[in-house]
Amino acid sequence: MKISAIVFILLFFGVILAAPSQVLAQSATPLKLQRSQTYNDSFISSIVQTQDGGFVLAGSNTTVYPPVLSLMKTNRGGEIEWTKTYPEIESMKWIIQAIDSGYLLVSQGSSGWLIKTDFQGNLEWCRKISDLRSVSGFTVTDDGSYVILDGIYVSGHCATSVFKYDDAGDLLWEKTFSDIGAGVILQSNDGEGYYVAGCQGLSFWFTKLDLYGEVVWSHTYDYGLEETSLAVSSIIQTPDGGFLFSGFDAENNWLVRTDGSGEELWHQRYDGYIISDNRQYDYRIRDIVQDRNGQYLLLSVSGIVALDDHGNKLWSSAYSEYVSDLKNLDKALLGVLGVSGFDDDLVVVVSYLLTATYPSTDDHYGLWLANFILEPMDSTDNGWFGVELLVGIAVIVVVTAFVGFLVYFKGHRHL
Length: 415
What we know:
The protein is mainly β. It folds into two domains: 1-28 and 385-415, no CATH class; 35-384, Neuraminidase. The chain contains two helices and 28 strands. The strands form seven sheets. Strands 1-28-27-26 form a four-stranded antiparallel beta sheet, with no helix packed on it. Strands 2-3-4-5 form a four-stranded antiparallel beta sheet, with no helix packed on it. Strands 6-7-8-9 form a four-stranded antiparallel beta sheet, with no helix packed on it. The longest helix has 27 residues, at 387-413.
């Protein structure tokens, strides 16, 4: 065999040997469980991280019948600081923190409620509103007012209503968008309006509203879907002023990345196995956060997956890796309620935990609150850096030495 052919083969295998270092680095999971708490007989529907780093959880007290609205305040470590119950109200859909450190709550159904408490959960005022049917978004504005996104039906067709209330709970304005399935709402960073993402038929829909609910711009994104239902679950504004929102159909997750004017930059479709290869659990993306390294964390009922800025998967971690009971067939993780901001790379995930066989008339619900640390992953940088560089240099040195030996041996063989 000629020396040139040997050199080619060795270099080829050298690249193959070097490449896995990058692959292995990206597939490693930097998620480490720091601590977790479980709470029995708590059916939680919403969570908000408080200004002191703790949490307030709104839901129903299932130890009494009929259930009553319950608020539970924990510190950063998950230890309960206080609880409050409100016997007149059965359940709550959403909770946010007001600018005065109190809490705003909204319920839905035949007897919708708007509730304001102080920072210790003491009731300040409440408003009974019969119009709320399917609340999917709730946000507070810089002036202390707040906006509610609600899904309704008009003449048998889905529609979306946006309500704005002042800080005393009085209605300021209402806007309705026909043939739009309600999704999520986000206040603009400049405080000059709101962004609403939802669905229009089999297409995603994204619009910007001004402070009075008038449309500034609107876009639809059609990916050729047929005979399936769509929903939008979360949205964030990216550091460059653009947006990233998630949605799902019957079997897939979707991500759509846009610029600041809603023009699409890219979209990605992920099948139900993006988090885990176990279809026992719900695969739908519920929340998106971006860490300080620029990667996006998608949270579903099954676990967490990290993506780069173009939507490529970096790593994933299933909750069943940390809680063995989730592997049992008589238990199921029902939902991801929320994610904290990042503080020293701390991620907090809160989920329902079903502790009785489903379906059952005697179900008991528990709450699992887990604090995760995101460890640095310097070796995931694109390009030949860190471990990749060292491995590459080592391969080249070995190949060069071996080729040199062959050349020397061939030259001396003919002496």
